[in-house]
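Technical annex B. To support the medicinal chemistry partners, we prepared a structural model of the target in complex with nicotinamide-8-iodo-adenine-dinucleotide, based solely on the information shown next.
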Amino acid sequence: QIPAEQWAQVVEKTGGPCVYKKIPVQKPGPDEVLINVKYSGVCHTDLHAMMGDWPLATKIPLVGGHEGAGVVVARGELVKDVEIGEYAGVKWLNGSCLSCSFCQQSDEPLCGQALLSGYTVDGSFQQYAIAKAAHVARIPKECDLAAISPVLCAGITVYKGLKESGARPGQYVAIVGAGGGLGSLALQYAKAMGLHAIAIDGGAEKGEMCKALGAQSFVDFSVSKDVVADVKAATPDGLGPHAVICLAVSEKPFQQASQYVRSRGTVICIGLPANAFLKAPVFDTVIRMITIKGSYVGNRQDTAEAIEFFRQGLIKAPFKVVGLSQLQEVFELMHAGKIAGRYVVDTAK
Ligand code: 8ID
Ligand code: ZN
């Protein structure tokens, strides 16, 4: 019952737009599974990929998408531990070599041979997507596929970032870009992990959403006269948050973070604005003992843990469902910074 053709969104040239059209359904290789994607979250990374924002080329033509939740419909002959009919997710890390020193130590996102869904291989903006069986996300049957799809990139990434920050329950963490897709999930994971979140983003709609998702306070960067002072003032002792999770798609907040992070605190860089650089004063970084580091998606264990938080009902971030055919409109809203939370596309429409 697997069709020969399917609907997909295809980027035919860098810069876009994406084109909604019928393309052939591929067959899984020996170590791969074919997933009938039901829903796929739309990540800002998909827009970066289409626009060619990063110093790493995509495949062309490209089917984007890396938050695909669906049902396993076929598997290669080497696949023994993923069953037909199970729920599974296509995530950013589509596959890795599993034998280099990074893979051996469960740092598989750092693998030099990593395959990236919706970037170096076709992703989840199609009805049938392929992924390496070793890397597909295992989704429990009781989970709603539309609601869980954003966990497959946004959830895993922010959960990993919060762990990498070293922030402990009871401490304060600033979430920069809290009103976006990753940010809305970061607020929910922070809360579930016992952290107090200071949300930073722009506009009243995002402010309301952040408060509803459990943020203790909201700093509106678009109206604040002094973001650094306002973020510090949002901690009880005025000394600033213990950690900063920087998810914004602009350079300035990456420079600001080290100014308001608490001494001995950690700045976690996750957002990937085009052509951006980190800059922090050496003097302050030294005498305030600040750590600045990057965090890149998560490994298979992080994936399972992030999904388990969701399964337990701890992660309820807002999302809007539209048809896969409307993806280009979602990208336009995203480019304008008008999305509070996440858009999810339904591949049947
Ligand atoms: O593994 C990784 N490191 C990883 C994984 C997934 C995504 C990195 N990312 C990257 C994406 O490629 C993108 O660059 O994280 C970034 C955020 O992705 P997203 O959450 O999907 O984007 P969004 O929904 O557009 O949210 C971005 C938010 O940032 C706010 C915007 O208002 C928006 O709500 N923002 C901006 I632009 N400037 C800001 C500022 N100065 C700001 N918020 C606070 N201060
Ligand atoms: Zn993503």
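Notes passed to the chemistry partners:
Residues 43, 45, 66, 92, 153 surround zinc ion (ligand 2) (CB under 6 Å).
The two ends are 19 Å apart (CA to CA).
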